[in-house]
Design a protein that fits this description.
The complex is a heterodimer of chains A (about 475) and B (about 625). Chain A has about 475 residues and is α/β, with parallel strands linked by helices. Chain A has 17 helices and 13 strands. In chain A, about 50% of the residues lie in helices and about 15% in strands. In chain A, α4 runs antiparallel to α5, α7 runs antiparallel to α16 and α15 packs antiparallel against α16. Helix content of chain B is about 35%, strand content about 20%. Chain B has 21 helices and 22 strands. Chain B starts with a strand and ends with a helix. The chains are: A alpha/beta (about 475), B alpha+beta (about 625).
C-alpha cells in the first residue's frame, strides 16, 4: 500500500509544481507559505549587534533547540530573554544573546517570530543562522518577511516595499523617502492618477450605456489629452526611479587617482573617520571593501576603498587593474589630480578611462602650487572641477555641492519628493505608460473610443497593481456618482 | 385550505413575467411536461414599466436569448412600433438595438405562443407553499388548494412577493400594476431558511397622448435601415410605419415643486425602506442628488399602437398624486396633460442571490430554481436571460443531467448571473456594458456565433436554423480567406478613395485584408476596388470587417480570457471547510463561507477578498489534495 500512495504524492506534487508555472510569482510564495524562514536582518558588517530573525509556525520551537536559558516554548509572547546559543551537536557555546519571542498575530508577519540579538560579528551571526537552518528553518528569500506580512494582509504592497527599503536605507535621505512612501506618498500619487483615468473612463462609459442622454460626448481629443497627461506624470515618476534606486543602494562611487594624490584623505574626509592613517606613504588603510557615506543627503557607496590605498603596491599592474574595475562599477567617479605637479601619463590615462562616466575632477594640493590649472582641465572636459586642498579642508563645500547637484539636477530636492525606489514599481509604471501610449496610438488610428478604452482600463488596472489595492465595481460606482441617470 | 392532489409535471414555473415565460418555454421545448402558473392570465409577459426592449448590454442579452432558442427576440420583432440602433458612432462592441414595444401586443403574442406550445400548460393560480422533502423540492401548493408534484420548480415572483405600492401618503399591498401580491410564498421561503431582503423600484405616470402639445417637444423617429433582434427575422418584415417618441425637459419650476414637497415624498420621509437602484432614480431623487442641474430629460413613449397612453420616461416618482399633477404640468408640452395612471414606487422581497448556484438552482434546496427580478435584478431583458437559464437547468435537472452555465467571456447572461451569485447585489441590478470585462468579445453582432451551438446541443435550436447558422459560419471563413488573397493595387481609383477617407496613398499593392485594416476603409470598398465579390450577406461582411479591423484589441481581450480560463479551471472542493484554513482574514473567511465559490476565478471576484486570501486558499486546496492522497 505504501508504494502506490507515495507514487500519488509524487505525482500530485509534480502537478502542483507544474501549475505554479501558470500562476507565477504570487503562488510561488504560497508554496512556502507555511514553513519557517530565517535571515540575518541587520546589514552585514555593520553595527556591534546583529539580529537573526525567524518567522513561521516553528519559529519558537526551532530557536528553543539552540537556546540555553528559559524554555522559549513556555514564555509569554512579546518578552525578551537572556541566554546562550549553543550548537546542539557539539554543545559549543556560539554566542551570548538576547532572544525575543513574539507570537502571532501581533507581529510583523502575523506569524510566530523570534529575534535573536547577538553580539558577535559577521562570522558568529552567520554561524547562528546556519544552526537555525540546520534545525528546520529555511533561508528566507530577499524580502520574504515583508512578503509574508503582505500575504497575511498586514500591509499593502506599496507599504511592504517601502518597509524593505527602510531596512536597507543607508542615509537620512533614504529614510525620508521611504517614510514618505510608507505614509502613502506614492500611494497618493498613484491614486490621483487612477482617479483621473477613472473619471475619463466613466465619462466614456456613460455615453455608451446611456446613449439617449444629452450628456456631452467625450471627444477623442479629450481622451488623448488625458492619456498624455497621465503618461507625463508617470514619466516623472519613472525619472525618479533612477534616483530611487540610488537612494536604496547608495550611489556607487569610485575614488581614483594615481598614488599619493590624496585618495585616502578624501575617503577619510567623506567617512569623517580619523582612524585611518594618513601619511605620505600610500597603502596604509583598513582593509574594507566598501563604505557608505552621506553627502548632503546623497548616499554614496564608496567602492573598493581598500584598493584606494593599494595602488602603490609593488606590482603596479594590480593597482591599475583594480582602478579599472572600480571605474567600471561606478555610477560616479571622483578623479583626483595633483595640482602641484605636471599632468602625468597615468593622469591622462585615468582621464581617458573615466571620460564616459559621471565624474567630478578634483584638483588637490592646490596649496602646494598650481602646475595644473582649472582652465587646462576645462579644455579637456565639461565635468565639474573642484580646486581644493583636502588635507586643509579647503573648498570642500564646493565638492559636496557638486555631488548633490550632479544627481538631483532637474529634480526638486524637497523632502516631499516622491521617488520610485524599486524595480517592481518601476516596471508596472512602465507598463501603464505603454498602455497609455496605446491609447494615443489607437486614437491616432481613428479607433472607436470604446475600444481605446481597453488600453485605458489596462493602464488603470496596472496602476492599481502597484498599490495592491483592488476595488470591484469602482467604475460603476464612479458612473453613478458622477452622472445623473434614470428612467 | 383543504388541499387536493392535482397533476404531476416535470417542471413547474411560478410567474409568467419575462423570466417565467422564457423558463417555461425552454423547459417545454426541451421535452419536459411543464406547468406555468401566473397570478393573472392577463399579465403574461406584461411590461409594467417602460414599453421598450433592448439598449446597451440589454439588447445584446436579447440577441443571446435568441441564439439560445429563447422567445424574447422573436416576440419583440413581431410587436415593436419603433426600432433604433444606438451607439452607431461607436465601436462594434457597444452598438445596441432598442425597440419601442406595443406592450399589449407583446403580451398577447407571448401568451399565444405559450398557449400553442406542446408540453406547456398555462394556468392562473397563486403559489403559496413549496413541497420540500429532505432538502429537495418536490412541488407546490396553490391558494386554491391544488397540490402539484414536479421534478423541478422555478420561482419567478418579480415584484409581487409581498409587494407594496406607495404613492405619497398612500400605501397598499399590491403586485405590479395593481395585481395581486404574493404573500404566503415569501413567508414560506423564509421558513425554508432563505434570506430575503426588500428592494424598491418605481414607475412614472402615464398621460393621455391627446393632451400633449408635441410642438414643444423634440421628435425621435425610428431607423430606416432594417434591423432585428432575432437572427431568424427577415428584412422584408421590417416595419415601415413606425411610431415616434418625443423628448422634453423638466425645468426649475418642476424642481421647485419637487423641493417644496419633499416632506411628502416617501423616498425621503422614510416611508420607503427598500433599496432603490442608483441607475434608475426617481425624479425627486435626481433633483436632490444633482441639485446643480437645472433640467432633466424626459422621454414620451407610446405604450402601444392602439392606446393613447403615453409613458413619461425618466419621470419615475412616488410623490402624492396632487404633486405629480403639478410636476407634470410644469413641463413643456405637458401643461395640459391629463394624468391616466399616477407613478408609484413598489417595494418587494428579493432573495439574496448568493444563495444560488450559477445554474440558478438554490444551494440549500435541490431542484428549486429562482430567476428574474426576485434575484435582485431590474429590467425585462435581465429577467428573461435568467429565466431561460433557470428553465434550461430545471429541465436538465428533471432529466438528471448536469447543469448548463455560461461564462463571463461567453455571454452577458454569464456576466449577469456570475455577478449575482458571486457579489450579490445591494440594489436592483442592471446590466451595463462596463460590467463585462470582455465586451469586445460579447458583441451584439456575434451572439449567434457565440451561442447557437450551445442552443442546438440543448435542443432549443431547430435543425433548419442550425443549418443556416453553419452556412453563415462557412461564408465568414470563406470571405476571410478571399479578402486575404485579393490584391488592391495603387491605381488612381484606389488613391482617390484613400484620399476621400483621409488615408495615405498606397505605394505598392496590398492584400484586401491589410487594406481593410486602414481606418475608415470598408469591406464594400475592398470589393469595389478589387472588382471581386467576396461575400453577399451583409452580416458576413460585418464579421470579417470587425475581425480584421479590431484584431489587435480582440487579441488583448483573448489574452485576458486565457488567464480567466486558467483560474476557472482551479476548482474549489464543494465540501471545503473554511474554518480549517488558519491564515484567512476573517472577512474573506465569512465571504467564502457565504458564497462558497466554485473556482479560484470566482473567489477572486468576490469583493473584500485580497490576493493574500486567494493565495492562501489556493495553497490550502493544493495541500488538501496532497493530504487526502496521503491518507489513502
Amino acid at each position: 500500500m505504501l508504494y502506490p500512495s507515495l507514487f500519488f504524492v509524487v505525482v500530485e506534487w509534480a502537478l502542483f509544481l507544474l501549475r505554479l508555472f501558470y500562476v507565477g510569482e504570487k503562488m510561488a510564495q504560497v508554496l512556502t507559505q507555511f514553513d519557517t524562514i530565517a535571515a540575518i536582518s541587520t546589514p552585514i558588517g555593520e553595527g556591534g549587534i546583529s539580529i537573526v530573525r525567524l518567522s513561521g509556525e516553528d519559529a519558537v520551537a526551532i530557536a528553543n533547540k539552540l537556546f540555553k536559558g528559559a524554555d522559549l516554548t513556555k514564555v509569554p509572547s512579546h518578552t525578551i530573554h537572556y541566554g546562550h546559543i549553543v550548537d546542539p551537536k557539539t554543545k559549543d557555546v556560539v554566542d551570548e544573546t538576547m532572544v525575543s519571542v513574539l507570537r502571532a498575530p501581533k507581529t510583523f508577519t502575523r506569524e510566530d517570530m523570534v529575534e535573536i540579538n547577538c553580539h558577535g560579528g559577521m562570522i558568529v551571526t552567520n554561524d547562528i543562522l546556519q544552526l537555525l537552518l540546520a534545525n528546520g528553518a529555511r533561508m528566507a528569500d530577499p524580502g520574504e518577511f515583508t512578503k509574508r506580512a503582505f500575504m497575511n494582509g498586514r500591509i499593502d504592497l506599496t507599504q511592504a516595499e517601502s518597509v524593505m527599503d527602510i531596512v536597507r536605507a543607508k542615509t537620512d535621505k533614504s529614510r525620508q523617502v521611504a517614510m514618505t512612501q510608507l505614509a502613502g506618498g506614492l500611494l497618493d500619487k498613484i491614486r490621483t492618477m487612477r482617479q483621473e483615468l477613472l473619471d475619463t473612463m466613466a465619462h466614456e462609459e456613460v455615453n455608451i450605456d446611456y446613449p439617449e442622454y444629452d450628456m456631452d460626448d467625450l471627444t477623442s481629443q479629450e481622451m488623448k489629452k488625458k492619456a498624455e497627461e497621465v503618461s507625463k506624470q508617470i514619466d516623472q515618476l519613472l525619472k525618479t526611479a533612477q534616483e530611487g534606486k540610488i537612494i536604496r543602494n547608495g550611489l556607487a562611487t569610485a575614488i581614483v587617482g594615481r598614488p599619493n594624490v590624496g585618495k585616502s584623505s578624501l575617503l577619510n574626509y567623506l567617512t569623517q573617520d580619523d582612524k585611518a592613517i594618513v601619511t605620505d606613504i600610500a597603502g596604509t588603510t583598513r582593509d574594507t571593501l566598501e563604505e557608505y557615506v552621506s553627502v548632503k543627503g546623497v548616499p554614496l557607496k564608496l567602492i573598493d576603498t581598500a584598493g584606494i590605498h593599494h595602488t602603490e603596491d609593488k606590482v603596479e599592474k594590480i593597482g591599475v587593474e583594480r582602478s579599472k574595475k572600480a571605474i567600471a562599477e561606478a555610477d560616479l567617479v571622483l578623479l583626483l589630480l595633483d595640482a602641484s605637479q605636471d599632468l602625468t601619463d597615468e593622469d591622462k590615462n585615468l582621464l581617458n578611462l573615466t571620460a564616459n562616466k559621471k565624474r567630478i575632477i578634483i584638483l588637490n594640493k592646490q596649496d602646494l602650487g598650481t602646475k595644473i590649472s582649472q582652465e587646462m582641465i576645462r579644455e579637456i572636459t565639461d565635468n565639474p572641477i573642484i580646486v581644493t586642498s583636502i588635507l586643509k579642508q579647503e573648498n570642500m563645500d564646493a565638492l559636496e555641492n557638486a555631488i548633490e547637484q550632479l544627481f538631483f539636477s532637474g529634480i526638486e530636492n524637497s523632502q516631499n519628493q516622491i521617488l520610485v525606489t524599486n524595480q517592481r514599481q518601476a516596471g508596472l509604471l512602465a507598463k501603464a505608460k505603454q498602455s497609455l501610449e496605446d491609447v494615443v496610438n489607437g486614437i491616432d488610428d481613428a479607433m472607436p473610443l470604446d475600444l481605446v478604452q481597453i488600453d485605458l482600463k489596462n493602464a488603470w488596472d496596472t496602476l492599481g497593481e502597484i498599490t495592491g489595492e483592488s476595488a470591484p465595481d469602482e467604475l460603476i460606482t464612479q458612473l453613478f456618482s458622477q452622472f445623473c441617470l434614470g428612467k | 385550505m383543504k388541499t387536493y392532489e392535482s397533476n404531476e409535471y416535470d417542471v413547474i414555473v411560478v410567474g409568467a413575467g419575462h423570466a417565467g415565460v422564457e423558463a417555461a418555454l425552454a423547459s417545454a421545448r426541451m421535452g419536459e411536461k411543464t406547468l406555468l402558473l401566473t397570478i393573472n392570465l392577463d399579465m403574461v409577459a406584461f411590461m409594467p414599466c417602460n414599453p421598450s426592449v433592448g439598449g446597451p448590454a440589454k439588447g445584446t442579452v436579447v440577441r443571446e436569448i435568441d441564439a439560445l432558442g429563447g422567445e424574447m427576440g422573436k416576440n419583440i420583432d413581431a410587436t415593436y412600433i419603433q426600432m433604433r440602433m444606438l451607439n452607431t458612432g461607436k465601436g462594434p462592441a457597444v452598438r445596441a438595438l432598442r425597440a419601442q414595444a406595443d406592450k399589449w401586443q407583446y403580451h398577447e403574442r407571448m401568451k399565444d405562443t405559450i398557449e400553442n406550445e406542446p408540453n406547456l400548460t398555462l394556468r392562473q393560480a397563486v403559489a403559496d407553499e413549496l413541497i420540500v422533502e429532505d432538502g429537495v423540492c418536490k412541488g407546490l401548493i396553490t391558494n386554491t388548494g391544488a397540490k402539484y408534484y414536479a421534478k423541478s420548480v422555478v420561482l419567478t415572483t418579480g415584484t409581487a412577493a409581498r409587494g407594496k405600492i406607495i404613492i405619497g401618503e398612500l400605501a397598499y399591498s399590491s403586485g405590479p400594476n395593481n395585481s395581486l401580491p404574493s404573500v404566503k410564498l415569501p413567508e414560506n421561503l423564509e421558513k425554508l431558511g432563505f434570506k430575503l431582503r426588500r428592494f424598491k423600484t418605481g414607475t412614472p405616470p402615464r398621460v393621455d397622448g391627446n393632451t400633449i402639445d408635441y410642438s414643444k417637444t423634440q421628435e425621435e423617429p425610428g431607423d430606416k435601415e432594417p434591423r432585428h433582434f432575432s437572427y431568424t427575422s427577415k428584412d422584408s418584415d421590417y416595419l415601415e410605419d413606425q411610431m415616434s417618441c418625443y423628448m422634453t425637459y423638466t425645468n426649475t419650476v418642476t424642481h421647485d415643486i419637487i423641493r417644496a414637497n419633499l416632506d411628502r415624498a416617501p423616498m425621503f420621509s422614510g416611508v420607503i425602506k427598500g433599496v432603490g437602484p442608483r441607475y434608475c432614480p426617481s425624479i425627486e431623487d435626481k433633483v436632490v442628488r444633482f441639485a446643480d442641474k437645472d433640467r432633466h430629460q424626459i422621454f414620451l413613449e407610446p405604450e402601444g399602437r392602439h392606446t393613447k397612453e403615453i409613458y413619461v420616461g425618466d419621470f419615475s416618482t412616488s410623490m402624492p398624486e396632487e404633486v405629480q399633477l403639478k410636476m407634470l404640468h410644469s413641463v413643456a408640452g405637458l401643461e395640459k396633460a391629463e394624468l391616466m395612471r399616477p407613478g408609484y414606487a413598489i417595494e418587494y422581497d428579493v432573495i439574496e442571490p448568493w444563495q444560488l448556484k450559477h445554474t440558478l438552482e438554490t444551494k440549500n434546496i435541490k431542484h428549486l430554481f429562482t430567476a428574474g427580478q426576485m434575484n435582485g435584478t431590474s429590467g425585462y431583458e435581465e429577467a428573461a436571460g435568467q429565466g431561460l437559464i433557470a428553465g434550461i437547468n430545471a429541465a436538465l435537472s428533471a432529466q438528471n443531467k448536469p447543469g448548463f452555465t455560461l461564462q463571463r467571456d461567453e455571454a452577458y447572461i454569464g456576466v449577469l448571473i456570475d455577478d449575482l451569485v458571486t457579489k450579490g447585489t445591494n440594489e436592483p441590478y442592471r446590466l451595463l456594458t462596463s460590467r463585462a470585462e470582455y465586451r469586445l468579445l460579447l458583441r451584439h453582432d456575434n451572439a449567434d456565433l457565440r451561442l447557437t451551438e450551445k442552443g442546438h446541443e440543448l435542443g432549443l435550436i431547430s435543425e433548419d436554423r442550425y443549418k443556416e447558422f453553419q452556412d453563415k459560419k462557412q461564408a465568414i471563413s470563406q470571405a476571410m480567406e478571399a479578402i486575404k488573397k485579393v490584391t488592391i493595387h495603387p491605381t488612381d481609383e484606389v488613391q482617390e478613395y484613400l484620399a476621400s477617407v483621409k488615408q495615405d496613398r498606397l505605394n505598392t499593392g496590398v492584400s484586401g485584408a491589410d487594406f481593410l485594416k486602414r481606418p475608415r476603409v470598408t469591406f464594400d470598398a475592398v470589393e469595389k476596388l478589387s472588382g471581386e465579390t467576396l461575400a453577399t450577406d451583409r452580416y458576413v461582411k460585418e464579421q470579417v470587417e470587425i475581425a480584421l479591423k479590431y484584431e489587435g484589441y480582440i487579441k488583448k481581450e483573448k489574452t485576458l480570457v486565457d488567464r480567466l480560463h486558467r483560474l476557472e479551471s482551479k476548482k474549489i472542493p464543494v465540501d471545503i471547510d473554511y474554518n480549517a484554513i488558519p491564515s484567512l482574514a476573517t472577512e474573506a473567511r465569512q465571504k467564502f463561507e457565504k458564497i462558497r465559490p466554485e473556482s479560484i476565478a470566482q473567489a477572486e471576484r468576490i469583493s473584500g477578498v485580497n490576493p493574500a486570501d486567494l493565495a492562501i486558499l489556493t495553497a490550502y486546496i493544493q495541500q488538501g489534495r496532497i493530504a487526502k492522497v496521503k491518507n489513502k
